[in-house]
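re: that complex we talked abt at group meeting.

here r the seqs, copy pasted straight from the sheet so there may be weird spacing, ignore it
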Amino acid sequence: MNKLVTLLASCCFASTALASEVALEKAAVGVDVPTVERGVEAVMADCNSCHSMKYIKFRDLVALGIDKQKVDEWRGDTPLDAPLKAQMSEEDAIASYGKAPPDLSLMTKAREGGSDYVYSYLLGYYAKPDGETGNHYYPATKMPDILGMSSTEDAAQKSEIRNRARDIVSFLAWAADPHEQERKTLGYYVLGYLFVLTLLLYFVKKQVWAKLD
Amino acid sequence: MPGRIIQWVDKRFPLTSFVKHELTGYPTPRNLSYWWNFGFLAGFVLVLQVATGIFLAMHYKADIAMSFDSIQHIMRDVNYGWLLRYMHSTGASAFFLVIFIHMARTLYYGSYRKPRELLWWTGQGLLLLLMATAFMGYLLPWGQMSFWGATVITNLFRATPFFGDQIVIWLRGDYTVGDATLTRFFALHYLFPFLIIGAVVVHLVALHTVKSSNPSGIDLAHKDNIPFHPYFTAKDLYGLGLFLILYCIFVFFLPNSLIEPANNIPANPMVTPNHIVPEWYFLPFYAILRSVPSMVGGVVAMGLSVMIFAFMPYLDRSRIPGGARYRPVYRGLFYVFAIDMVILGYVGYIPPTDSSIVIGQVATLFYFVLFLLLPFISKSEERWLVKRGLPPVVQALIESEAHEIKKYQKRRGKGETA
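got the structure back, here u go
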């Protein structure tokens, strides 16, 4: 059903195709606080040195249920209401990688394929014969293989990397749409109400029109 | 006491008689199908868009340095801002869906025929206003697709003879789409809905003058009309419930399927997206634009593809009532046209390839040929149907209408001599 909806949606509604010709790996995005918390930790350790998340404030992390002490450690002496800035300045990043690292707040919404794309991209690194690393999903990327997918053959290590990528994507998905769970919960109530209301309206309509015959 | 207040008002303003004649007692054909619900639904979506839009405008900033951030502020920090914004962005699609069905119903049942030409043309004007409003609203989030869509579309006005370049600058307020463009689009995006409301009033006055068409395609005898309330209030509300279920599935569960991923990247005049696509409701027209090799030709073809509906009362020369119901050839054309629209939509959606360009050109040709051949097809179809012998139902319909007209003329004749 989900597939059908996605298929229908992608047929009927405008969206950029062309993100990549390689089929994406499905990311099992977690919405529970422990997963998202592991995700924040991974992002702060692996991504935040170069990437900012300007729409996320430290206070949002506390509100989500992340340990206050950890948040205080990350923010140091910046205020709780400050957004998550990258540790490296943009100029330094451009000097090192040739390109400004994009802000990650909306990353899972800003790419065709969403969370699946980001997940696939993080795991898509491979070692080229010349010793460089390449990426199946975004060949032109300037980002190094931060999770180390291209430098290991060990199955256990690979599965660990997969878990870490899943945690990261789960946090990024929350960051891109922090009200998603609230929205869906409310949606079930709204639809339930509408189903009952519409059913009643159907009977009203039937009864009113019955007077005509 | 309330009775006395109403009496007081009625002496000074036709409140009771207006409600009785135009709302509750408005005579409506009893044989209307559910396809006649969509005018009411369009009115409902209009109110929804205005209501959510006004609250969004309270938090939105029309400034290229702030607009993208202000949308994120609405989505994250404003209480239920995400709900307002998703209702509004989904509402745009809902509006076009409802209007397209409303138009398809008119085309299928031949509701544009005499005496409803003006009703149809005011509707055509409403479609243009709606398209303009949607287009300007799409610039406001100041994402990549907003910026590049507005750049591409305003650039089309370069095709205007003599003043092309000046008109483009006049529209944008600058040499490129920028802060001046954003601010004016916001002002106009706030103004246009009120023009639409005014045009809707004109549309309704025309409707209440000629009354609703109905599936039989002829004006029914008075006994077949029933008061709007409670019959059609009940029917419209049930239809509204069904509509809201579909709408809320998108608002709460699939809102991002209607938002281009590239529009979650702030506008960047230095980086062109891989593939610039308009919203789904503009795709068939966009495909027609791209199918014509020359820019001027493309713009003319696109404009004509939208405006050509206005000629329907003259293009369709058949007098067989009941729209496509009793007209097998016209019915076939209707479905061919619908399929052609879907093909054009698909061609407009995918990045152009050699084969898609050819498919688009064939579909564009089909689009116009269908309209241009309609006068001949409809006339010969009528002759063929009459020669073959009309089905008894149609014959009865035509006779009952002739009978009604005669009766009406007789009554009027008597009235004049008396």
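couple things i noticed - The beta strands of chain B are 27-29, 225-227. Chain B has a mean pLDDT of 93.
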